[in-house]
Amino acid sequence: MSALLDTAAALPVGAAPSPAGPATQADLDRPGPPEIPLPKHLQVLRFNIRQTEFVFKWRRELGDTFRFNGMVAGRPVITCHPDHVRSLFTAKPELVPTLVSESPLRPIVGPASVLTANGPRHLRQRRLLLPPFHGEAIERYTQMIADVCDREIAQWPIGEPFAVAPRMQSVTLDVIMAGIFGIEGDVPAGTPEHRFRRAIEHLTTMSTTPVAQLGELLNVGKAEPVGFLKQGVRLLDAVTYPIIKARRKLDDLETRTDILSMIMCARTEDGDLLSDEELRDELLTLVLAGFETTANSLSWTLERLVRTPDAYEQLRAAVREGDDAAGHIERALQEGMRARPVIPMIGRRPNVAWRLGDFAVPAGTPITMSILLLHHREDLYPDPFAFRPDRWVGRKPGTYEWIPFGGGTRRCLGAALAMAEQRAVLDAVMRRLDLAADRPEAEHAQHRNVTMIPARGARMIVRSRS
Ligand code: HEM
Questions:
Q1: pLDDT in tens, 135-176
Q2: How far is the CA of 262 from the centre of ligand 1 (A)?
Q3: What is the full DSSP assignment across 205-260?
Q4: Number of domains, the chain
Q5: Of 312, 344, 262, which is closest to residue 56 (Cα–Cα)?
Q6: What is the pLDDT of residues 386-397, one digit of tens each?
Q7: What is the distance in A from the centroid of ligand 1 to the CA of 120?
Q8: Which of 51, 106, 190, 419 has the most CB atoms in a 10 Å sphere around its CB?
Q9: Residue 249 confidence class, pLDDT cut points 50, 70, 90
Q10: What's 338's domain CATH number?
């Protein structure tokens, strides 16, 4: 290693402190965060068409914290400082309701979902759902995930470009169906579960159309679905309730280990069971939050790997030769999720005034944490635009610096499952296949609902199979 690189590695990594949390009147008397100097309609347009360029540009021009005038009521502040993130993740939950309850997800997953509920209701739903997503519970799925993955990658074409993301979605949908419903292998045709799977696939495909994208905007801040989403929700209801009703009639519900049976038997502190409506909301939450996110996260990591030959060859050699394969896989995934967080921003609407470093905002102002900008801070990740899994050698992801799964009391419930899936798939792909990018240029990010996905579906070529 050159002396220059030695010095670079020795440089301290960390952001300068920036106090944050509930604000005083004195904090509020100072000027607020800088505003993006564009009319609202241009901000909405640019944010929706090119969100990535938009946030990087205004971060460069205005600093860590700036104000944006978009579709969310109340002109949100966008921030990317780890101290600001810490202040929101560690705040009392009742002070920082989630913005998901105002997003287009709200009319789909309903008000009772763990994703959209706030306060005591949120904590109650979370406690009920935690056991089946605990690390040990997830270990039960490891073999099933490997089998699903082997079946899928055996079908990938050799020598012709194809999009990896839809293939990954098929794997993650199988895994979530197996986990939730306890069905392994192909879902039998004609069953309610089969109809459920078909409906999810149909709506996922539909959601990429311009009509659906417009529909998303129309549903911001709505409690009940309107337009395109209304039909989608009707379809989902029609396939979800029959599953719940049939499941309630089973004799062996108490001993079953699938997630649906477990949450059907779970009781609140008051001894209540979840109602059909609550079960419907949680079921859809788990499927919708769980399969596309994991599939696109994996697709992004592969998209980065095939364009970074050193990292790709190193990982492949480690997996094939068994030389700290697990460590290499972990670092590749950490770096993939740093460089391309599938959920690029998450938000809260504190109901008290909030300080963000030199600025403060009044109670009720939405605060958006840009995961993408945080993950590209030069002071936390030197050379942030380079894909370098080895930056993680000897370094643990910081709780407020690496947040692809969010944090605090709303940290992703499915993180252990998502990591188990990603590890198994990356291991199998590196072991069995030799991949190449279909073209040298990086794929652009496309923004869909709350996610950031590879615009061409992470297209690549299988050079050979072994
Ligand atoms: C790589 C894949 C995934 C990523 C990047 C991801 C990311 C996230 C993020 C950032 C949040 C926090 C949202 C916020 O703070 O507002 C979240 C919450 C959540 N995720 Fe995931 N997720 C993934 C996979 C999954 C899976 C597999 C499941 C379940 C099967 C799941 C279920 C949930 C649920 C239920 C919540 C809401 C938790 C709460 O509000 O208490 N996610 N996820």
A1: 888 888 888 899 899 999 999 999 999 999 999 999 999 999
A2: 19
A3: HHTTSHHHHHHHHHTTT-SS--THHHHHHHHHHHHHHHHHHHHHT-TTGGG--SHH
A4: 1
A5: 344
A6: 999 999 999 999
A7: 19
A8: 106
A9: very high
A10: 1.10.630.10
